[in-house]
Specification:
With 222 residues, the chain is α/β, with parallel strands linked by helices. The chain is built from nine helices and eight strands. The structure holds adenosine-5'-diphosphate (ADP) (2 copies) and zinc ion.
């Protein structure tokens, strides 16, 4: 069996999953699978599925398991990678079971699930200050991670910096409720499988990255 490393980043909206996933891509050559990004792509393509998901996403609710599992299945079937970072997936127990089955079918497994713990007050600040580069996807924050030059992406120089339609207080309330009701049970699910590691997501970006690196190294050599 070939050696692959598959990592799930688990945490509420704004915990820092996307930020850290991008670093793991840079540092370890893993492939980031963000269902949020896939769904935003689907909605901008104006397809039938796109129209359905746009409304659900803007309200802050979860898109159906069927749609999301379909997107992940397609990516796993068509992507060669030394491993995947699942960012924002799975978000329900049904999605977690489906992912386990898909990986088993490929002779692979989840190596480690990293839970990023951040309290709700910090999440409001994180979400309300978030903006991203429309060209390369780099994630920024008004105060904790501003661009070096105002209005210009540090990574690619694009001036197409944008805020997400669902990054508002109203939608965040729903997204947090969805997280606690439907996603947080995954903490127990993966703990019971012996795969869970938790870290303090309130630390600064560099500190979180360092801790995450240690966890991934330990999981890979285990
Ligand atoms: P998620 O993918 O979990 O929703 P993001 O990675 O998009 O979270 O981060 C949410 C916001 O918080 C972004 O604006 C990001 O720049 C900022 N951020 C991420 N990690 C940290 C951190 N450790 N400390 C402070 N701000 C952070
Ligand atoms: P955040 O990390 O800030 O919550 P994401 O980009 O991961 O944002 O997700 C944005 C929205 O996309 C979610 O609020 C939800 O509507 C939808 N979504 C993303 N991933 C999933 C998933 N695995 N299952 C169901 N809905 C999802
Ligand atoms: Zn950019």
């Amino acid at each position: 069996m070939t050696m692959t490393t598959n990592i799930i980043l688990l945490g509420p909206p704004g915990a820092g999953k996307g930020t850290q996933a991008r670093r793991l891509v840079e540092e370890r050559g893993l492939v980031q699978l963000s269902t949020g990004d896939m769904l935003r792509e689907a909605r901008s393509s104006n397809s039938e599925m796109g129209k359905v998901v746009a409304d659900v996403m803007d309200k802050g609710q979860l898109v159906t398991d069927e749609i999301v599992i379909g997107l992940i299945r397609e990516k796993l079937e068509t992507t060669e990678a030394p491993g995947f970072i699942f960012d924002g997936f799975p978000r329900t127990l049904a999605q977690a079971d489906a992912l386990g089955d898909l990986l088993t079918g490929m002779g692979q497994q989840i190596d480690v699930v990293i839970e990023m713990q951040v309290d709700d007050a910090a999440l409001v600040d994180r979400i309300s200050g978030r903006f991203t580069c429309g060209n390369c996807g780099e994630v920024y924050h008004d105060t904790t991670r501003p661009t070096e030059k105002p209005g210009v992406c540090d990574v690619c120089g694009s001036t197409d910096l944008k805020r997400r339609a669902d990054d508002n207080a109203e939608s965040l309330k729903t997204r947090l409720l969805e997280y606690y009701k439907k996603t947080s049970p995954l903490i127990g699910y993966y703990y019971a499988q012996g795969r869970l590691q938790s870290l303090n997501g309130l630390a600064d970006i560099e500190e979180v990255a360092g801790r995450m690196g240690q966890i991934v190294d330990a999981a890979v050599s285990a």
